[in-house]
């Protein structure tokens, strides 16, 4: 009786693996001094207007951001009361000229460190935690690795050596149920404590 032939897995070249995972290289920035053009008076006047407009825009942008921040703060309690009856992501706020702006709260949050888990559980309860939050992670390779090490990673990475090759970041991510039930499921004290750890992205304000 002949021996069964052992199946040999095809060898994938390192170059093929890298080619499939690589992104286009960015063009190197020129080290030469940027040349200054000789232009007409008309072009110089145009440049002067553009510079003035950009400076005015930068100043105006700062004022708009400050006013928007104040508006969010003033209407947040009003929107909170609406959400106690049923979740509302967008509201319209009228102006003195019978027009309005829309203010929208997204369901995105800044990364919440895992160290906050115990404090959050004390507020929402262990049973509710898994419905309100998920654990997110991001894994990246540490620095440069040689071909021999890369070959080992392609073949198989053992759990004992995982941390040798990868950086791992983990954080808490609120679920949709947390966002939609924030005002109806928690009291004011709980909301204040949670907001200090689970920071929602600021609401967007649009004029259309």
Walk me through this protein's architecture.
- The chain is 49% helix and 16% strand.
- By secondary structure, it is an alpha+beta fold.
- The protein has two domains: 41-104; 112-202, no CATH class.
- Helix 2 packs across helix 7 (176-185) and helix 3 (117-124) crosses helix 4.
Notable traits:
alpha+beta, three-stranded antiparallel sheet, 208 residues, flat, 8 helices
The major pleated sheet works out as: 3 strands, antiparallel
Topology order in helix (H) and strand (E) letters: HHEEEHHEHHEHHE
Low-confidence parts, pLDDT < 50 over ≥5 residues? 14-23
Assembly type of the shown chains? single chain
Distance between the termini: 81 Å
Average pLDDT: 82
- Order of strands in the sheet with most strands: 1-2-6
| Total domain modules | 2
Overall geometry: flat
Helix tally equals 8
Please give the radius of gyration in angstroms: 28 Å
Helix content: 40-55%
């Amino acid at each position: 009786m002949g021996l069964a032939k052992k199946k040999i897995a095809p060898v994938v070249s390192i170059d093929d693996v890298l080619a499939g995972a690589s992104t286009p290289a960015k063009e190197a920035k020129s080290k030469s001094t940027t040349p200054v053009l000789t232009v007409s008076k008309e072009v110089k006047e145009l440049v002067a207007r553009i510079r003035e407009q950009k400076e005015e825009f930068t100043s105006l942008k700062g004022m708009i951001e400050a006013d928007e921040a104040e508006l969010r703060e003033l209407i947040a309690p009003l929107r909170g009361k609406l959400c106690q009856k049923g979740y509302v992501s967008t509201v319209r706020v009228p102006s003195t000229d019978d027009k309005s702006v829309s203010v929208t709260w997204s369901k995105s949050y800044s990364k919440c460190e895992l160290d906050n888990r115990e404090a959050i559980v004390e507020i929402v309860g262990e049973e509710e935690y898994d419905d309100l939050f998920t654990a997110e992670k991001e894994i990246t390779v540490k620095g440069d690795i040689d071909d021999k090490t890369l070959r080992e990673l392609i073949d198989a990475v053992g759990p004992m050596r995982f941390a040798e090759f990868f950086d791992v970041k983990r954080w808490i991510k609120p679920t949709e149920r947390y966002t939609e039930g924030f005002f109806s499921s928690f009291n004011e004290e709980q909301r204040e404590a949670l907001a200090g750890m689970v920071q929602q992205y600021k609401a967007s304000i649009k004029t259309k």
